[in-house]
Structure formats: C-alpha cells, structure tokens
Design brief:
Helix content: 40-55%
Structural class: alpha/beta
Keywords: Carbohydrate metabolism, Fucose metabolism, Glycosyltransferase, Transferase
Organism: Lupinus albus
Radius of gyration: 40 Å
Number of helices: 22
InterPro entries: FucosylTrfase_pln, GDP-Fuc_O-FucTrfase
Pfam family, one: O-FucT
GO molecular function: glycosyltransferase activity
Number of strands: 13
Largest sheet: 6 strands, parallel
CATH architecture of one domain: 3-Layer(aba) Sandwich
Shape: extended
C-alpha cells in the first residue's frame, strides 16, 4: 500500500480558505442572545458603583500581573484592620465541664438540706433493708479440718508478708495453701515493715498463734522457727537461704513444677515478697486450705478480740431502739488516700499544697514523671474518687436511713476532719468511732500500731447489720467474704455505684425526691447482689460460695440470724 501524500499530485495549488472577519460575529451589533440587549432596546443604566467595579475588573483582566499584588493588598488591609481594633477586652471562651467531673456535693447538700430533714416518708432503712430472697436455699459454712495424720514433710517454707493488715492476711492464707499442697512445713510468716503503715507488729501481736497452729495441725504443719541444725548450713542467716522471686498470680502448678524440686533439694526455701503470688483459681484441695486458713484458723489475738467485742457491745447499746442493729462505714478519706486518688475537692489552694506534699512523701516522684498527665475530672467520672464524709451522709439519707441511725465509722485520720466531718455529723449525730467508744487508756495498747487498730475496726464492722464500703481495697474485700460466711451467704453490704453518684451529686437541678428515688434503687441493687457465687478469677476471700460454703435445702424467704 502506498503511503498517504499530503502534497497535491498535480502542479496546481489548492485554493486558500477565505480570511477571517475583522470582528467576531458575536460582537456584531444587532446579534440577539439571551441575557443581551437587542438593538431596539436601550442599554440598562449602570450605577456609579457598578461602573467602578466594572472598570476595576477590566483593568485586572487586561493587566493580569496585578494578581501578583493581591496577597500584598490583602495583608495590607488586614494590618490596617488589626491596627484599628482594641485588645483591652479579650473575649472569654467558657468551657463547660463534663457532667460528673466536678465536686459540687456541698452546693447540693445546702440546697436539699431542709427538704431532707423534713422528709418523714419512710421508716428507718436499717430494719427493712435486706429483702431479697435466697435463690435455691441458704448457704452454710462447710470447711472442716482433716482428721488423719500428715506424711513426712518435704521441707520448710518461709514467707514474708508485706502490706497492711489484710494484704498480710492474703499472704498468710496463700502460704498455708502452698505449704499444704507441697506437703511442706510452714514457718509462721514474717511481717515486713512498711514505711507507709509503720507497724512493727509480729504475727502473734495480731493473731492468736496457738489457735492458728492447732486449727491447721491435721492439714499443714506450722512451726515458729526453722530447726537450728538446718539453719547452720546457711550460717544461721535467713538472707543466705535461696529466695524465689515468684511472679504475681502464679498458678499452683508452677509451685509444683518449679518450687517443689528446689524445696526437696535445699530443704529450706524463702519466698519474698509473697503478696498476691498465687492465682485466685486453683484446684478444690487448694481452695479448701485457703478457706480453712481465712475463715477458721485466723482469729485475732486476745487483746484485739477483747477490745473489738467490747466495742461491738457498746455499739449495740447505742442501738437499743433499733434492736441492737447498727450501720458500719469504711471511710477512706485519709490524707494519703486523697493524695493518691489525684481527685480535686473543695479545699482550694491549701488542699493542692497538702496533696503535692503528701504525694512526694509517700511516692517520691511517681506522680511527677515526665509525660504523666493527671485528669481529676476523668477520675471522678470513672468513679475512682474516694467519697467524702458529706457524700456518704447524703447517700445514706437518700437510701432511707434516718437522722437517728446509729453509725460506726471505721477509718484512719480523716483529712481536714474539722471541716469535712461536720456535714456527716449534722446528718447522723449518733455517730461513733473507736476513739469515742473507748477511753485513751483502753486504746493505748493499739494506738501506735495501724494494723492492730484496723483489726479492731474489722471486728466491729463484721458484726454490724449493714456494712458500707466507699472506696474498695483489701479491708472491704475481706469483709465482704467474711460477712457472707457468717450471714448465710449474704454480704449485707452496700456497695454504691460511684459513677452514678458522681453524676447525681453534680446535678444542681435535681430535687430531693428524684435523688432519693435513684439512691433507693442503688440500695436495692446492693441487696440483690448480696448473695453471689465465685466466678473464674474472683477472689475466694470475697466470694466464699461455693468453695467454702454448702447450700442447704431451705427455699423459704426467711433470713439467717446475725452471728455474734
């Protein structure tokens, strides 16, 4: 195929096209187009401003270089505007805090106090609070010690129990379980001195050591010290004994696979620290030993038991109008707790200074590390702030407890007590502590020992008709389980929803009747949760059913009598 040739094949040229007209047809006069004027119509009259604008646009279109100066023109105009504005008055942007993030309980109390005091719509809740029927019958303790003898011991286990009273209690019970499972002899646990609790008490100062050993004698061998002939191998120095650094929440199988071979080899081992070194879930044989240690073998020493029972009797005397029934409250509003929570209350500048100093003394830089951000509002919304005495009183009055309800307050030294305790005493004048029930002479044996004082509080709270927990921790953790063990499976405990409380107490427009309705529902919820079975990863020290208790065949709605 021949290629296409653009040139003509003949000698003649192709004629050129006609030349273009001088002006575009669309600009010719007489052409009519939509939006244009016709030659028969006069053009519209433009105003002066329209003519100036048209002139300005025409200049820009013809001289496009002017666009290069547009940014300069804009900046000049902005500078002229800014120079004409006065900055003496700066606009304020108001930030509205999230609901529940601010401590406004004092304002709410002031608003509702008169209506609260005049409310006589219900009888005292202390006589009607526990209504939930048991499902499937009641529960009773069924932990019994073994009757047979023990095989030859595989060696001695020495543990150091650290922390406060109830953290040490965890270590003791877990040590009993581990020693029994490994067929070892347990040395009476040593209490590690801590800079926060500052209590040098030994095991026998807090617990009845002889009773402890005798209760466990058919299940676990317990001795006061390791025989001298074994300690000679280590220069009679416990620090020379092999020490296991065991991870928290280790399984009992780990002890069998790792600890037992070393125990058989060395005959003496040390585990320090030992708090929370055994997982909550374990075989029934291990759980039975925990139950036996906690609910049967651990009894307070005679001085503590005598003082505690004496205060229980005095509280019942103050509660004669209620049949000897009283309410106990575990209030955590000590300075160290307020500081650790990082929450903000109504103490202003002085409170901020006190909390900064307390954090530095107790935790030395933990809260001032680079990158650490503390959000008090978010902490309050999440229900992590300790309830103040005022909030506890407002909550209980809303739950139906009257002004005459006898109250026992278990706590350490309340922060700024003169101010913070005043509203609670106004709402509940029949309020007592161990310091008001006992003389200084009676408390002199315990006064400088935090664990012994806590043990007295534990005893009085254990025997109350209602126990109120406000902040969590090991103290209510153990009391919940111990009360369930004593009262047929029911904890008889008010455990408030602190997230909901944060919203309620930050509601300036809420009325007394509406607040009371919410709090009565919260009280009913605590009643319905009184009897709960242990689930995986739950603590047996809070949920003794079904590992430590057996269900009876009773299905009626009668309540168990209070233990004495």
């Amino acid at each position: 195929m021949l290629p296409y040739n653009r040139l003509p094949s003949t000698g003649y040229s192709t004629p050129s096209p006609p030349s273009s007209p001088l002006r575009s047809p669309r600009l010719l006069p007489g052409r009519i187009k939509t939006g244009r004027f016709s030659p028969n119509q006069p053009p519209p009259v433009r105003t002066v401003s329209q003519r100036l604008a048209w002139l300005f646009i025409s200049v820009l279109l013809r001289r496009q270089g002017v666009f290069l100066f547009a940014p300069l023109i804009y900046i000049s105009c902005m500078l002229l505007y800014i120079g004409s504005v006065s900055f003496d008055i700066v606009p304020i942007i108001k930030h509205r805090p999230a609901p529940g993030s601010v401590y406004r309980s004092p304002e709410l109390y002031s608003k509702l106090r008169d209506e609260m005091d005049s409310d006589d719509s219900s009888v005292d809740a202390i006589s009607t609070i526990w209504k939930s029927a048991y499902k499937g019958g009641e529960w009773r303790p069924c932990v019994n010690g073994s009757s047979g003898g023990l095989p030859e011991s595989n060696g001695y286990i020495y543990v150091e129990a650290n922390g406060g009273l109830n953290q040490q209690r965890t270590s003791i019970c877990n040590a009993v379980a581990v020693a029994g499972y490994l067929n070892a002899t347990l040395v009476i646990p040593n209490f590690h001195y801590h800079s926060i609790w500052k209590d040098p008490s030994k095991f026998s100062d807090i617990y009845d050591e002889e009773y402890f050993v005798n209760t466990l004698k058919n299940d676990v061998r317990v001795v006061e010290e390791i025989p001298e002939y074994l300690m000679e191998r280590f220069g009679s120095n416990m620090t020379n004994v092999y020490n296991f650094r065991i991870k928290a929440w280790s399984s009992i199988q780990y002890y069998k696979d790792v600890v037992l071979p070393k125990l058989l080899e060395e005959k003496v081992i040390r585990i320090s620290p030992f708090a929370n070194r055994l997982s909550f879930d374990a075989p029934p044989v291990v759980q039975r030993l925990r139950c036996l240690a906690n609910y049967e073998a651990l009894r307070f020493s005679s001085p503590i038991l005598t003082m505690g029972e004496s205060l229980v009797a005095r509280m019942r005397k103050h509660s004669e109008m209620n049949g000897g029934k009283y309410v106990s409250i575990h209030l955590r509003f000590e300075e160290d707790m307020v500081a650790f929570s990082c929450c903000v209350f109504d103490g202003g500048k002085q409170e901020r200074q006190d909390m900064v100093a307390a954090r530095e003394i107790g935790w030395k830089g933990k809260f001032t590390k680079p990158g650490r951000v503390i959000r008090p509002g978010a902490i309050r919304i999440n229900g992590k702030c300790p309830l103040t005495p005022l909030e506890v009183g407002l909550m209980l009055r809303g739950m139906g407890f009257t002004k005459n309800t006898p109250i026992y307050l278990a706590s350490g030294k309340i922060y700024n007590a003169e101010k913070t305790m005043a509203p609670l005493l106004e709402m509940f004048p029949n309020l007592h502590t161990k310091e008001t029930l006992a003389s200084e002479e009676e408390l002199s044996l315990f006064k400088n020992y935090s664990s012994r004082m806590a043990a007295i509080d534990y005893t009085v709270c254990l025997h109350s008709e209602v126990f109120v927990t406000t902040q969590g921790g090991n103290f209510p953790h153990f009391l919940l389980g111990h009360r369930r063990y004593m009262y047929g499976g029911h904890s008889k405990t008010i455990k408030p929803d602190k997230r909901k409380l944060a919203l309620l107490f930050d509601s300036p427009n809420i009325g007394w009747k509406s607040l009371k309705r919410h709090l009565l529902n919260m009280r009913s919820h605590s009643d319905s949760k009184g009897v709960e079975l242990k689930r995986p990863n739950d603590s047996i020290y809070s949920f003794p059913c079904p590992d430590c208790m057996c269900r009876t065949n009773r299905t009626d709605d009668s309540r168990p009598s209070s233990a004495t």
